[in-house]
Amino acid sequence: MENRAPKEKTVILIAAYNEEKDIAGVVSGSKKYAGHILVVDDGSEDGTLKEAAEAGATVIRHQRRQGKGAAIKSGLQYIIKNFGDFEVVITLDGDGQHCPADIKKILSARASNKSGLLIGARNYGRMPFGRRFWNGFISFLISRIIGQKIGDSQSGFRLLGRRLALILAESSGRDDYCIESEIIFLAIKNKIKMAETGVGTVYKKKFSLKTLRKDLIRSGQIFIFVIRRSFDFYPRFKLFLKIILTGLFFISFPHLILTDLLQLLKNSSTILDRCIP
Asked: Does residue 92 surpass a pLDDT of 90?
């Protein structure tokens, strides 16, 4: 018999922003796996709150959009205060990208490996190329930093054990999409066991230049965040970068001064030529 967390001590946490078309289906599909379903409406401008509440979820709302990370932290703080005897929290997106039926896979995998963080790894073959490339690159980078292979570091479909949920709720880290990476670093820092299991993924949004631009900006932010966090694991790497940047500055400084001086002399010569008949 599997040693799972009891249903009444399992909480589903869904961060949602303008997801009125899909949120009810996500809530309804998740009900049989958890004792509580909490939706955090991150300042939506549509009927997300109404649809989630009518589907049977407890809903809390940000008056303005604060970011996915902030929504997850608000949700965890609410869970700790109101569902204090919880054992695990499962996060998934409100846009229907994650299949609620895969919650069973997440719970079964956790029962067998006792991990405090279990990530639902998506099938990259079904992912749009741009997102597949960046997610793969970021996952590779994080894997190298922490010394453990992570196939899908950016998946929002994951299980948090009680200890990690308590740590994350009080974290002063990022409030945006960097939260997925932040959770991994927090788990490693606090020596919390981490694992992955495969889950399905449904992509409904069609490609557009607008979505491409958003993905590129998000990927750039995550990349910078991961590099900065790598300094906590490799202080010498931070020192190395400082030395390199300092060296580049001192190498470039004389060149810049000389270039400006030559330009000044050239301008002065031009002015003199105009003034002297």
From this structure: yes
Q: Model confidence over 212-242: pLDDT tens digits?
A: 677 788 888 898 989 888 888 777 666 666 6
Per-domain residue ranges for the chain?
7-233, 235-277
Homologous superfamily of 7-233: Spore Coat Polysaccharide Biosynthesis Protein SpsA; Chain A (3.90.550.10)
Pick from 84, 16, 87: which is nearest to 55 by CA?
A: 16
How far, in whole angstroms, is CA 104 from its chain's centroid? 23
pTM value?
A: 0.81
Q: Provide the pairing of β-strand 36-42 with 10-16.
A: parallel
Strand order in the sheet with 88-93: 58-62, 36-42, 10-16, 88-93, 158-161, 117-121, 194-198
